[in-house]
Amino acid sequence: MLTRTAFTTHAREFSSVVSAGTFSEKTTRELTRDQGIEQLTRLLADTRARGGGLYIIGNGGSAAVASHAVTDFFNIGGLRAMTLHDSSTLTCFSNDYGYENAFSRRVERLLTANDVLIAISSSGQSKNIINACRCATACAAKVVTLSGFRADNPLRQLGDINYWLDSDDYGMVEIGHLFLLHYVADLLGMDWSDEDDG
Q1: What pTM value is reported for the model?
Q2: Quick one: which of 17, 72, 75, 76 could link to 189 by a disulfide (CB 3.0–4.6 Å)?
């Protein structure tokens, strides 16, 4: 039976998982947490400055995280941000090209070298997310991955910046990803308000 004590323990575990999140580059070189957050924030600020777009993808709970994050990056961070899981388009591309290509077919038609793709998969194993990352790289766009579960999951190898959480609990990983994205959107919002005031 769940109790208030169990909730407190769960909250402490969440804090521990997020605080221990690991950032790395495409070379698999690990970054400190501060370096990772700084690089991610700078990448998105540069994208905003040159008028590029931010695209965020995920499946299931990670799609909900993507939608929430798009709202924050658009509203607070001043980015041209959108998801790629509009139901009509997603089902069309899934039906015509297979679900494993549902995102990649859109990525190849939309993304340019000015854009960023944030790809979210708790397990890091989703084929449609992996294929989209490869396609974004081929389009010369920057790729950021958010994953969890196994340290050697394939998604973690594909981003210019990768954020990995050492947990196999979907709730911990999904909310941890949202926590990071919300935090970065808030940082961008502070920069953006400073620019507007200037």
Answers
A1: 0.93
A2: 76
